[in-house]
Design goal:
Length: about 160
């Protein structure tokens, strides 16, 4: 996960979380699909994160200026779309993305997707998705953020913005 504390540089935190969640199309074990943000910066972070995600260019990875390429297969795309539906059904709010993208070239393109107002018990917070899907969870303070970050089966990487 990535942790963003109240005293973080907002611009740096948003860029770090964007890259760690969505670059490599989120298809790596170290992708930060969980973003844990303290309540003092939460609203500003979410607003800035949505604006940043909207600027991500999706397309062929061989094309100049593309930030996020396709997911690896039709099966993976379908799995990613299922997780997006699960997130909605479990009560997370879809802030942006969540749909296929037509890029004028063959491939399994998915818009970078951000859920907010999620909680640590949701499947999108507990399971590895392997796609461009991330969710933001609000916490009170550093202690709660650290406890939540450590409450996972998958502890391959983590970061903190302070």
């Amino acid at each position: 996960p990535q942790i963003v504390l109240d005293d973080a540089d907002l611009k740096v935190a948003v860029e770090l979380c964007t890259q760690s969640a969505f670059y490599s199309t989120g298809q790596r074990c170290t992708a930060s699909s969980r973003i844990i943000v303290t309540e003092g910066i939460y609203d500003r972070f979410v607003e800035a994160m949505v604006e940043r995600i909207k600027k991500i260019k999706v397309g062929s990875a061989l094309e100049q200026g593309v930030d996020v390429g396709p997911v690896v297969s039709q099966a993976q795309l379908e799995q990613d779309l299922r997780y997006i539906e699960i997130g909605k059904q479990e009560g997370a709010r879809l802030a942006c993305g969540g749909e296929r993208v037509a890029c004028g070239t063959e491939g399994y393109f998915l818009a970078p997707t951000l859920f907010v107002d999620s909680n640590p018990n949701m499947r999108i917070s507990r399971e590895e998705i392997f796609g461009p899907v991330a969710n933001v969870v609000k916490v009170k303070d550093y202690g709660e953020a650290l406890a939540m970050a450590n409450d996972t089966e998958f502890g391959l990487s983590a970061g903190i913005c302070t």
